[in-house]
Amino acid sequence: KHVSRKLLHTGLNPGLSLQLSRTIILSNAIALIAILLCSLLLIYLLAQAQWSWSLATGLILTTIFALFSVLIFNRLCWRNTSRFVLSILIPIMSTLIVMLPRITDPSHFHYASRNASLYYVVLVTCIVPLMVFSTRETRLLIPALGINLLILLLIDPAQFVFSADYQTSEYSAGRYLANNIFLLVTACFLIGCIIFLKSLFEFFEKENE
Length: 209
What we know:
Layout: H1 2-8, H2 18-48, H3 55-75, H4 79-104, H5 116-125, H6 128-132, H7 138-161, H8 173-207
């Protein structure tokens, strides 16, 4: 319990505001949870592959080390860097895990067999910027959220372009909407609700100061 508390409080100083202190603890907590989940996934994939390493397991290990940098940056008082890295790391690394084998040899992949788990991961983690940045920190919030949304928007056409079906079938705007309309609506719903909740929370917090 003492160790976990110490890790969660990495980067805290007595002179910090309550809001910033809470944000640092939250970013440390998200990083530690992600490290735990990535470690379990890494062990599972290595066991499935009889403990032989692959591109995917190598990238997951890289992600784990990169997540530790969130705590290191907080310790060094690079709090904006820490939160920005945390905001975009998992969507980018998840996309690389799925897309790099396709980019290397698209002929081994078909568009119809898209990796649904990538959509779930990017959808869930695209809201992390809204959790670790204040709605007033637009200089950092907008780029981080924009990168995640761009990944979410481009996953589907990218998987089509880097597939064996690229030369034989057509990809239209109608097809894109049919495949992604529920995903995009869900993303807008999540983002809208969190922005409203965060704005409301920050308003009442400011009123009570």
